[in-house]
Design brief:
This protein has 6 helices and 5 strands, in the order βαβαβαβααβα. By secondary structure, the protein is of the alpha/beta class. It has one domain: Response regulator (Rossmann fold), CATH 3.40.50.
Length: about 130
């Protein structure tokens, strides 16, 4: 089933790679290079799922965007992708209810994201899978 997926990342190479991979699987993809632009896209049309980078124009832009999206519509699944673990050793997870409560994401993937990981998350989070 095709989904309307919003990708948010200030890394244009990652953004285009992910867009190409998801479109090749039949999904409708919108892209934003900042959390600010993503908010506008979410207001314009509800996505089925959002994949957002953690660190963009502000170090916590991904967290802020997750909170914004969940306030708008708590049923929109949000995946955070981040290179923070590789850079700092800090690990973010959304595996428990407590972690999801403060992160507000339905899942966290470390960069570089493997397509198999992303597909597994899409199957888990989207009604009808991918």
């Amino acid at each position: 089933m095709a989904a309307d997926i919003l990708i948010v990342d200030d890394d244009l190479d990652f953004l285009n790679l992910l867009r190409t991979a998801l479109e090749a699987r039949g999904h409708r993809v919108r892209a934003a290079e900042s959390a600010r632009a993503a908010r506008e896209l979410v207001q314009a049309r509800r996505p089925d799922l959002v994949v957002a980078d953690l660190m963009m124009e502000e170090p916590d832009a991904g967290f802020s965007l997750c909170h914004y999206i969940k306030r708008q519509d708590p049923t929109i699944p949000v995946l955070l992708v981040t290179g923070v673990t590789a850079e700092t050793g800090l690990r973010f997870d959304a595996g428990t209810g407590e972690e999801r409560a403060w992160i507000q994401a339905d899942g966290v993937l470390d960069k570089p994201v493997r397509l198999e990981q992303l597909e597994a998350e899409l199957r888990r989070l989207l009604p009808g899978g991918i």
